[in-house]
Design brief:
5 helices, Four Helix Bundle (Hemerythrin (Met), subunit A), mainly alpha, 5% strand
Length: 167
């Protein structure tokens, strides 16, 4: 991938990344605090852990793209993040700064190859697709949690039974 191509892909992806972040916040905000420990079965994460996984993974991916490498480990929820509000506060604290780091990358940095644990070797900008797909996947899981726990499901890409489409 050339640096010009990387910049073009970045400029296409960045607005989508910002929009998806707003939708992720909206879905996480819909988790009732008193039901944050709800999970569909013993194999699944509870709602709070799933919300944490979404936001911490986004932060990890974005920082890895900006720094040119993905570190092993991480993702543990800090002791001070024990509520839905805490997850949202964490996200509000890390997402804007991670985006700023990405926006400051040169075209050459966006095009540089980053190794992903020996599985993928892709231009940095291509990992933005991983961020989007990963978050959308788990956010979809979280919306099914909301419905099953009796909470209201917000609209995401259109209306929901609880929040009809507005023009």
């Amino acid at each position: 991938m050339t640096p010009d191509q990387a910049r073009f892909l970045f400029q296409l992806t960045l607005p989508e990344l910002k929009q998806e972040a707003q939708l992720t916040q909206k879905v996480i905000r819909a988790i009732p605090e008193e039901q944050a420990s709800w999970k569909p079965n013993e194999k699944g994460m509870n709602a709070l852990d799933l919300a944490w996984h979404i936001v911490s993974s986004e932060a990890w991916f974005l920082e890895g793209i900006a720094s040119g490498g993905f570190p092993q480990g991480g993702g543990q929820r800090p002791e001070n993040v024990q509520t839905v509000a805490g997850v949202l506060a964490f996200y509000d604290g890390v997402f804007p700064s991670a985006l700023e780091k990405l926006q400051n990358l040169s075209d050459e940095q966006l095009a540089r190859t980053i190794d992903f644990f020996g599985i993928y070797q892709l231009p940095a900008v291509r990992y933005l697709g991983f961020v989007l797909k990963h978050s959308v996947h788990h956010r979809g899981q979280l919306t099914t949690y909301l419905r099953a726990m009796g909470a209201k499901v917000p609209s995401v890409y259109g209306g929901s039974a609880d929040e009809p489409f507005q023009r």
